[in-house]
Amino acid sequence: MPTLLLQDGFKFFFYANEHLPKHIHVTKAENFCKINLEKMSVVENYFKKTDLQKVIAITKQNREYFLDKWDEYFKG
Fold first, then answer.
1. pLDDT tier at 1, thresholds 50, 70, 90
2. What is the full DSSP assignment across the chain?
3. Distance of alpha carbon 41 from its chain centroid, rounded?
4. Domain locations in the chain?
5. Residue of 49, 62, 45 whose CA lies nearest to 7
6. Distance (Å, whole) CA 49 – CA 28
7. Is the peptide bond before 2 cis (omega within 30 degrees of 0)?
8. 42 bridge partner residues
9. Mean of the per-residue pLDDT values of the chain
10. Which is nearest to 7 in space by CA: 56, 40, 49, 72?
């Protein structure tokens, strides 16, 4: 389970056996969400609105990095 980023208490990662479309998982405490990196859409969410807004902003800022890491890990 490669961790890509720890920021503001949020952990951004993907699992070793992921599937398409390219996406990122985010956790903080007992809450989590899943964001499609290609469409920048929320697939699943258990965060409060304010936390989700922070997660989306951080994901947008790091989208290219996350996509590069996905391609590197899963070989394209």
1. confident
2. --EEEEETTEEEE--TT--SSPEEEEEETTEEEEEETTTTEEEEE-S-HHHHHHHHHHHHHHHHHHHHHHHHHHT-
3. 11
4. 3-74
5. 62
6. 14
7. no
8. 35
9. 96
10. 56
